[in-house]
Protein 1
Amino acid sequence: MVIKISNILLSEKIIDKKILMEYEEYLIHRQWMSHALQLAQSAGEHGDVPVGAVIINSNGELIAEAENRKERDQDPTAHAEIIALRAAAKTLQTWRLNECILYVTLEPCPMCAGAIVHSRVGTVVYGVDDAKTGALRTVLNIPDSAASNHQLSVIGGILESDCRNVLQMWFTNRRHRTK
Ligand SMILES: [Zn+2]
């Protein structure tokens, strides 16, 4: 029996519609994460830790994109997520981003997780866990903490190895440069 997901030639006995939908969503998540990775790469090339973020609206359209600019701007709050949230709120003319999905290559830090809760983002999709400052689940879980008044969906591990590699290579190169 042939199961070709790309052509949607499926036996419904084997793969039900829910799984197909999840697979299509997964492909969309990969596509936007790949966009965020390009932004991360650009941040790295400009001397910032390579992290990129994009926000899409309920129609699946890109409404904001940003890369980490902390070093370039000498701004401690210039993480990719914060810049993207500001841009999305400006585009939609509202700080309430319930219908939006935020994609970010690295698990958000406590500052960004706080901003994500404040913006009421519906879903966060991230690439790789941050064992040092990850605040969606790895070190802290700010959205589910007592300090949070907003529930959101969190999906981790999309293009995880690519997201990890871009960071590891950047830190390795920097160590070589500073020797
Ligand atoms: Zn952050």
Note: The helical segments are 17-45, 70-73, 80-92, 110-119, 160-178.
Protein 2
Amino acid sequence: MVREPERAEYAPHRRTAKHAMGSRPACRGTMRNTMDARLRALRARRPDEDIKTFVIRDAEADAVAVTPQRIAEVSRALFDAANAPGYKLPMLPDTAAESMRMANDPTVGMAALERVVGRDTMLATRMLAVANSPAYATGERPRSLTAALQRLGTGAVRDVLYQSVMECHIFRGDDEAFVRAERAHAVYVGHIARLVCQTVGIDPQFAFIVGLLHDIGRIVFRSLANHPELAKADPRFRAAVFSSAHAALGSLMATKWSLPGPVIEGIRRHHRYRDFAADGGYSQIGHVVAVADKVAIALGLGRPEAPLSETDRAVIQEIGVQPDTLLLTARQIVSRF
Ligand SMILES: [Fe+2]
């Protein structure tokens, strides 16, 4: 059974009656005004403002014989350290940041996008390679950036650009196996998040980028490895703190990168998309990515394979799709990669 969200942060309306969640119909203008107001409120809010900033799982606290409060305390210390004026968060180079900004602006045309991407040789090369990958390429392979962009069309260009920026500038490092797994998981979750939106009739505009960046907090967490609270910590304690803090750290990074509100929200809510505020709360984009993350793990995509639990199945059903059907379709899509 599908439940009506108590209070949506960002919930583009469903496009088909078939999958409607029972919400009251609203005229397009009213819907847009309400959404704009929500987005304005979301942008104005600091990433650590709500009452349940960190997701603490009692079982994880029990496993390392610490209290949930201790995990929350260390998570808060890490968040404050990453947010301190002197701390250098991983940032995007200017061209990449500008490209991302332009990709997020629907009024920016293909020619302008191509000019900016063309200034960054590494980014342009990567973009061509992604456009030629089986996920996007159909028919003859485009040989120039212009041809690739035209072939893809504006919607896919943005997703390819997001992926290329991340692959060039963020999913990099000496630990090759780690980077490869992170990149694979991120890209697959992006594609599955888009599939979830298309299946249940949710606007997929931000689905890919949120899926791609949902665990970006992992990079911030690694950059804090020498923090006094982590440096000599038990590995299980570190894992519990990571589990608690990475969504908030990721949303902090997305905020510093000036990414759109729905992207920040999706990263922040991908483990707790419901009941994060004093009066409840529901994040549709967070729910979409939570579902995509679970499906990607069930298929062993960039993470150790783990079958869906009953709780996972309930999360998937709650968004309006049958878990086994989604698994099957997702498997078919990723087999094309
Ligand atoms: Fe996560």
Note: The chain has two domains: 49-89+174-337, 91-169.
